[in-house]
Amino acid sequence: MSHRSKVITLGALALTGSLALTGCAGNDPLSSGSDEGSSSKTIVIGSQDYYSNEIISEIYAQALEGDGFTVDRQFRIGQREAYLPEIESGKIDLFPEYTGNLLQYWKPDTTARLADDVYGELQNATPDGLRVLDQSDASDQDSYTVTRQFADQWKLSTIDDLANVTVQMTLGANSEAETRPYGPKGLLDTYGITIGFTPIEDAGGPLTVKALKDGDVQIANIYTADPAISADDLVSLTDTKGLFLASHVVPLASDNVDDKAAAIINKVSAAMTTDDLIALNARSVNEGLPASTIASDWLGQQDLN
């Protein structure tokens, strides 16, 4: 890696193996009012330490509760390195994941890049005792994002164009991104472009956006469904060489998730779109609403029968 500049943190982070239990949400708008046919097993649902992922987890939880399932919420666990061992050990039964990043975790040398190829290979790479349910059309993936001013100054529209920048560039992202396949080494290997790295531990959130706008970093890893991209007139550079794999929302489930529960979650995945994700995220960022309210409102607008 080129160099490491100052670390920007978001207070006390819960990236340890401990799981933070959150309270149960209120009544589900899709509840049938009957427990007939419900599972006697409690389904443990987790989420990343990322507000958007927590909203999806809460949607899963409320949809299952509405059909009589008992749910144990274990949200805001951390990032993939923290929570996947918990899933693989059987402590978590259901988790909203992202196809491309999950595949690269289990198969770093994958050559799959397109959505269906990634999903097919992910199905084969998933360990025994786990399975991925139907992938959603909704996509929320990593992107190299710059300010409009920086893009205009250097005439940037694709990642390739970063080769024309003659000043030192630093990428701001969660610390684990430094060693992931799409981090600085991946950029060098794929595009021949050298950048530095600064850890900013808020999953592309307000601190990352502020660092980008203040010029503390020149590039940020911001997820494509983040409403800040539009609100702050940021530019996500087009990835012409497949540095980032297609990454659609996909439920990762254990054998404790039976066919009835899986069918409910698959209906959620089929109903959710990328525009939905952006709108859900905007309600969290702009209105400050809790995940339980956002999830309940979204479910109330769906027909999952």
Question: What does the model show?
Answer:
With about 300 residues, the protein is α/β, with parallel strands linked by helices. It folds into two domains: about 20-140 and about 245-300, D-Maltodextrin-Binding Protein, domain 2 (3-Layer(aba) Sandwich), CATH 3.40.190.10; about 145-235, Osmoprotection protein (prox), domain 2 (D-Maltodextrin-Binding Protein, domain 2, 3-Layer(aba) Sandwich), CATH 3.40.190.120. Helix content is about 35%, strand content about 15%. The chain has eleven helices and eleven strands. Helix 1 packs across helix 11 (about 290-300) and helix 3 packs across helix 4. The chain starts with 19 loop residues before the first strand and ends in a 5-residue tail after the last helix. Mean pLDDT is about 90; it is low at about 1-40.
